Amino acid sequence: MRRRQFLKTLTGMGAALAAGAGAAGATIRSGGPRVGVVGGGIVGASIAWRLAEAGAEVMQFERTAPAAGATRNSFAWLNAFVDDRHYQALRLASIAVWRELDQPLGLGITWGGYLNWAHDAAEAEAVRANAAQMAGTAYPVRYLASAEFAGFGPAIEPGPVAAAIYSALDGHIDPVHATLQFLAQARLRSARFQCPVEVQRLEMRAGRLRAVHTSSGVVPLDRLVIAAGVDAPALLAMAGFRLRLRHSPGFLAHSTPAPLEVRTVCDAPGGLSFKQMADGALVGTDSPEPPDLPVHAAIRAGAVDFPDPAIRAMHGNRVLDKIRVFLPHARAATLDRVTLGFRPMPTDGLPIVGHVPGAPDVYVAVTHSGMTLAPILGLHVRAELLYAREVAALAPYRPGRFSQQPS
Ligand SMILES: Cc1cc2nc3c(=O)[nH]c(=O)nc-3n(C[C@H](O)[C@H](O)[C@H](O)COP(=O)(O)OP(=O)(O)OC[C@H]3O[C@@H](n4cnc5c(N)ncnc54)[C@H](O)[C@@H]3O)c2cc1C
User: Fold this and answer.
1) pLDDT tens, position by position, 220-253
2) Which atom in ligand 1 lies closest to the alpha carbon of residue 68?
């Protein structure tokens, strides 16, 4: 499905979620503090749900459509492959919450684990380095002998195996479906989803938040959570906080459905990553971090639809051809679409979560591992924002570490 078509469909869903919610300036049910959430991606959806669950009067603002940002373009591998132990623990905790939510919310997460293998000595080094990150942790990563490989990826024809590892804990998810499920949970608890509504200005007095000015009116609020992905810096600037964020691009090829054979997330030789969705569609990339090109700014702003058909076909078919080398059953699948998304990438690669320095009523949650972290962020942000608890698990990720950023 083309990008504009897809967004149109999602905008329709946004309208459905917003139905009955009233105008942006309307009074919400009385009770807890009035909390605004900017962003209808997976992070904003998780936070809005948890705040509403605890009794806050939640008003969520989404400029385009639910999951319209990084979320819909995500590979959505739920994993903890990082060597920072503290960060790994946060990700493991979030994966545990995904497991709890899976059935009750009908998320359909594929818990097939993760396979990483290499053809040659150089790639084998990278596989070993990947495994080394998990050494001594609770993460169950193990080396596979060639003969064992078939037990974990029976449909895969791996070719020569110089090194292989398997992790049982990982899963992958449909990011749009998960976001819509979280938004539905928020709505069940009376959160208001305003879409398409853009937050354009924060009204602050003596450092305290009074209201947000949106494209559909002024909304008085007690607190605001910025979960706006790559647009977080623009919103933080409205609160007087300067943040630099990289926009790490990433493209994915999506196929038409093939027979469902593969449940693992695969990092294969040649820098190829792929997974198979529950409907059989293959999703993959051979270039997880392509260069940031000038045209990307226009794409992020929604002014240009990229890639154009010829470039789309070229990149998409190249990735599918590579997947077919390892997955013979995928030969019948054809290219459905190519997506290009932008990870909100903090300059030190770690999440940014917490009260904004100088603006205590404004809170930010931005991360490039948002699919993995969304459930735990929802719970932790609720604890900090509504129960005034300082969550130790978030201590290393405070926005204040960027207070002295050079321009
Ligand atoms: C190619 C790719 C692969 C990825 N793979 C993984 C992976 O395997 N595992 C993983 O954990 N993560 C992965 N990620 C990252 C993950 O998808 C993101 O971290 C996550 O989706 C961020 O969610 P979010 O809700 O913070 O931001 P977004 O999904 O970007 O949502 C932000 C929303 O805010 C809205 N907005 C912005 N400004 C305003 C405003 N002023 N007013 C109202 N609304 C506004 C936008 O329209 C947007 O919908 C990947 C990302 C990409 C692009």
Assistant:
1) 999 999 999 999 999 999 999 999 998 788 999 9
2) 49
- Domain 3-19+32-72+176-244+349-402 classified CATH 3.50.50.60? yes
Task: Say if pTM beats, i.e. exceeds, 0.90.
Answer: yes
Q: How far apart are CA 381 and CA 363, in angstroms?
A: 9
Is there an atom of ligand 1 within 6 Å of 317 CB?
no
Answer for the pair 224, 325: CB distance below 8 angstroms, yes or no: no
Cβ atoms within 10 Å, residue 331: 12
Considering the four listed CATH numbers 3.30.9.10, 3.30.420.40, 3.30.1360.120, 1.20.20.10, the one that applies to the domain covering 110-169+247-345 is: 3.30.9.10
Q: Which amino acid is at 384?
A: E
Q: Is the CB of 149 under 6 A from ligand 1?
A: no
Domain ranges across the chain: 3-19+32-72+176-244+349-402, 110-169+247-345
Query: Averaged over 187-191, what is the pLDDT?
Result: 97
* Nearest CA residue ID for atom 16, ligand 1: 370
Atom of ligand 1 nearest to the CA of 42: 25
- Alpha carbons within 13 A on the beta-carbon side of 364: 31
* Ligand 1 site, residue 116, Cβ cutoff 6 A: no
